[in-house]
Automatic annotation (TrEMBL):
Pfam families in the cross-refs: Glycos_transf_1 (PF00534), Glycos_transf_2 (PF00535)
Protein name (record): Glycosyltransferase
Species this protein is from: Streptomyces bathyalis
Annotated InterPro entries: Glyco_trans_1, Glyco_trans_2-like, Glycosyltransf_2, Nucleotide-diphossugar_trans
Keywords, in A-Z order: Transferase
Alphabetical list of PANTHER family matching this protein: GLYCOSYLTRANSFERASE, GLYCOSYLTRANSFERASE 2-LIKE DOMAIN-CONTAINING PROTEIN
Length: 879
């Protein structure tokens, strides 16, 4: 969960809008988002302790307004106290008599902040403007809460602390916050839990001038969604104005200048009114001012009088507060108009602000993103943020006077009257804006900034995808905690757990966090993955661990780092990790594959089912020992550099009933990529994983019919967390299979197993056929004929754009049919006579003339439209 806190104490402002844009990146990663507007922080907005009313309607539906509970119960902490501290301690540099009360209140506030975060399972915090000394008591409390909460939960840098306004650029002329070096302000500190964010290099430079030793500060500019603003209701063919213009009394053809800002003296809206008056004799220019006229009634009244006195009262529209530029923010007005609607109808956007008040000029960025030309003053940081990057606009030089000069008015008039020039300027700025302020860039930067640090001694990250696993999770986590090495408990600093929550609705996440709190020696990270599917979750966890390990400097450059996959319904043996790492260290393989087993007691009274399972596992033990096998999500490890070499786990999609579904076989696909890249895979039989019997129990009907992982070429798996029926049918979880069912289950299991585990390895790595043990298994004659046939098929099938599993599935199926009798003979000789003979051929192949058998096998295996080959081989691999 993301907790946002704004020191702005207003429901909609530039600060809140930037929070929304940043929070969206968290939401896309599956975070819930809560926002404290800061009513209980800032004293000058007259909202202290005021309950929320309709503020939520002005924000996206996915943001929940919240606040720290119990602040009103803290003795002496109220609006007057905050005002007194600001005036006496910060502005006057006195107020020593208040410091004892400040310390006491800060301790009490810190306690309540931590209590709130604990209740909500907060995992990330975004602080907006917390350094601005409006309330140094609360800032001190926040620092304390961050340290305590971060230390307790081992969260790394879980806080992004961003200051939009800083002392040296917030009305410095009146010394609102004192003078440098601002002795009464709570300065940024080097904390292992906080990443400070500056909006541009100048802000970063000035912050470091103030706090020279600050190490954890990065630049992340305000970002925007770059999409041209389009009118929702354009003008009709009869020349009548659109709904927006009609509602605000703006003629259809009148040039429109947009100004969206707070209506206060520092914003200098009077300059826009003077500009409109100076343009009046050239065009019917209108000015739309979007802002709350009630914030400073005196300023609003003065501006109205000014417009009337200049003869443009009918051309200046005070449209009230519009919803922010971001499209999914709820509207502040009943008609639902937003700043984006205003920009869709505007010819120009204006930002004639005062020199030292506005720092970043979000209206300029929003105009650029909406493909609208802008005009501006050269305010204090204009060149730092926009001008030095090459953006083009009429710029009012404040050294030339306080109001628009003739040359500036002429440049604006030229734009107003020349549509082609406006379009060229807008297009240029729009493209440049994407490069510097694109929303995608923010997502990339945030993704890196939010990665928690990895322990210096950590060698393994165990990735555990979970979805509603509250029943199984305690035992699984306990088995990870109980890992042992050769001389006792495995050192917990050698490994960590990355639990990837795939939208659980039960107690899964709370159980994980409680386990982490009770076992602080073992690092456990909870990472969300919003796209449903175990493949997506496994990829997210692997990528998370890989990026963090790559950023760490190891003392020994020769050390290898391993990404380890586990399943949330399977328990691992106590030497699982140690055996896996030891084998991979000694053999330098890219992938280590574990051994899997079932506990016999779970199948008591079901001898036919148990026999089918055991035959499959015996075949697996023999072939994996020969060929190394392929990774299975239940338990494997991959060396980090090998993971990155092949591009990590790939998620691809198939159509099922007209909808895209993500492919289940990410582990097999990944193994194919690694093996195909020339890397080795090793089988580690001493690293053992117990398979949860529910995989068979709740999918037994699909196992019997070869549909355990879908059909017709679609590889998916149904939810197997269902409860057992009260009256199990024959063949159900408590009953054995019939002889016919057992034979069907075995045939689908062995048909799934054989192409994957005896043919695919040598198809990917023909050099295996030179290995003495492999030659002994196949026999010299069969090994040589397989080698020749693999070369022929590879030359024949030179298609290179298939996804990994499909680029090898077809040739594996073809080789199976061509060599099935001989391969089964070798399995009988090696594994046991009970392996039997190949299952019956598909009916369509039984009547094919012998001399054309190989030809029609090719047609059968390559017919992806019908999915017949997929259905024949099935997916008995659930065993």
């Amino acid at each position: 969960m993301l907790w946002g806190i704004s020191f702005d104490a207003t429901p909609i402002s530039g600060v809140v809008v930037e929070f929304v844009k940043t929070a969206r990146h968290f939401r896309e990663q599956g975070y819930q988002v809560h926002l404290d507007l800061g009513y209980d922080i800032k004293a000058d907005k007259n909202a202290f302790f005021r309950p929320y009313r309709d503020e939520a309607a002005q924000l996206p539906h996915w943001i929940r307004l919240d606040r720290v509970e119990g602040l009103g119960e803290i003795p002496g902490y109220d609006q007057q106290f905050v005002s007194d501290v600001l005036r006496e301690c910060v502005q006057e540099g006195a107020g020593e008599h208040l410091l004892t009360r400040v310390d006491a209140a800060a301790r009490a506030i810190s306690e309540r902040i931590v209590e709130t975060w604990e209740r909500l399972d907060v995992s990330a915090v975004l602080v907006e403007n917390g350094t601005l000394p409006e309330n140094i008591t609360y800032t001190m409390a926040l620092h304390s809460a961050i340290e305590r909460y971060g230390r307790r939960h081992r969260l790394g840098r879980f806080v992004l602390w961003r200051d939009h306004d800083l002392m040296w650029q917030s009305e410095p002329g009146i010394g609102k916050y004192g003078t440098f070096p601002y002795p009464s302000t709570v300065a940024p500190v080097n904390s292992p839990y906080i990443r400070y964010i500056a909006l541009h290099e100048e802000a970063r430079r000035r912050t470091l001038e103030w706090v020279p030793g600050l190490e954890n500060i990065e630049v992340l500019p305000n970002t925007f969604t770059h999409a041209p603003a389009v009118p929702r209701h354009a003008a009709g063919s009869d020349g009548q104005p659109s709904a927006f213009r009609r509602d605000f009394g703006i003629p259809a053809g009148a040039p429109l200048i947009a100004r969206f800002t707070r209506i206060i003296p520092q914003k200098r809206i009077d300059r826009d009114i003077h500009l409109v008056a100076r343009l009046a004799d050239r065009a019917d220019v209108h000015l739309f001012v979007a802002g709350d006229t009630g914030e400073s009634p005196e300023e609003h009244a003065g501006l109205v009088r000014l417009a009337d006195s200049l003869g443009v009262g009918d051309r200046v529209v005070f449209g009230g507060p519009l919803a922010p530029h971001e499209a999914d923010i709820g509207a502040a007005r009943a008609d639902g108009y937003s700043v984006r609607d205003l920009l869709a109808h505007a010819d120009l956007a204006s930002f004639l602000t005062s020199y030292d008040y506005e720092s970043y000029g979000n209206p300029i960025g929003e105009a650029i993103a909406s493909r609208v030309p802008y005009l501006t003053t050269r305010y204090q940081l204009y060149d730092t943020v926009y001008g030095d990057k090459g953006f083009r606009a009429p710029v009012m030089e404040l050294t030339d006077g306080d109001l628009p000069t003739q040359s500036f008015v002429d440049s604006v008039a030229e734009l107003i009257l020349d549509e082609r020039k406006r379009e060229e300027m807008a297009d240029f700025n729009h493209g440049l804006g994407k490069q510097h302020f694109g929303a995608d860039r923010a997502g990339e930067v945030l993704g890196e900034l939010l990665l928690p640090p990895m322990g210096e001694r950590t060698r393994m990250s165990v990735v555990l995808p979970v979805y509603n696993e509250a029943d199984n999770l305690p035992a699984v986590l306990n088995s990870l905690w109980q890992q042992r090495g050769p001389d006792g408990p495995l050192d917990k600093s050698l490994y960590e757990v990355v639990l990837v929550d795939n939208n659980s609705t039960d107690e899964t996440v709370r159980i994980a966090r409680r386990f982490a709190a009770d076992h602080p020696e073992l690092a456990l990270h909870v990472v969300p993955e919003p796209e449903q599917g175990v493949a997506c979750a496994r990829k997210t966890g692997m990528d998370f661990a890989s990026r963090r390990s790559a950023r760490r400097e190891l003392a020994d450059a020769e050390q290898r780092f391993y990404l380890v996959s586990a399943d949330a319904d399977c328990r691992v043996d106590e030497r699982w990790l140690w055996e896996l790492m030891t084998a991979m260290e000694s053999g330098k393989a890219a992938i280590g594959v574990c051994d899997y087993y079932y506990e016999a007691e779970h199948f008591a009274g079901r001898p036919r089912l148990w026999d089918a399972i055991q035959r499959t596992l015996r075949c697996r033990a023999v072939t994996f020992a020969l060929f190394g096998g392929f990774p299975d999500g239940k338990g494997f490890a991959v060396e980090r550099d090998a993971y990155e070499k092949v591009g990590g786990i790939e998620i691809f999609y198939q159509l099922q009933n007209g909808r895209f579904v993500n492919h289940l076989s990410d582990d097999w696909d990944f193994g194919i990529l690694v093996r195909g890249s020339g890397e080795d895979i090793t089988y580690v039989p001493a690293s053992r994983v117990e398979i949860n019997p529910r995989r068979v129990n709740h999918a037994i009907d699909e196992v019997i019919t070869g549909r355990a992982y879908g059909s017709d070429g679609i590889i998916v798996m149904r939810d197997i967390r269902v409860q057992e029926p009260a009256e199990p049918a024959e063949g159900g979880p408590s009953g054995d299979l019939t002889e016919q069912q057992a034979q069907q289950a075995w045939e689908f299991s062995i048909k799934d197993f054989t192409p994957k585990n005896t043919i695919l390895p040598v198809l990917l790595t023909p050099s295996l056929l030179d290995d003495r043990a492999v030659i002994e298994f196949f026999g010299a004659s069969l090994a040589e004929r397989l080698r020749r046939r693999i070369a022929e098929i590879k030359d024949e099938m030179r298609v290179v754009d298939f996804t990994p599993i499909h680029s090898y599935k077809t040739p594996s199926y073809r080789l199976y049919f061509e060599f099935a009798d001989e391969i089964f003979a070798r399995l009988r000789a090696t594994v046991g006579e009970d392996i039997g003979h190949p299952p019956p051929l598909p009916e369509c192949l039984r009547d094919v003339p012998e001399e054309r058998f190989t030809e029609f096998v090719r047609y059968f295996c390559e017919d992806r439209e019908s999915g017949e080959a997929h259905n024949y081989f099935g997916n008995g691999g659930v065993f």
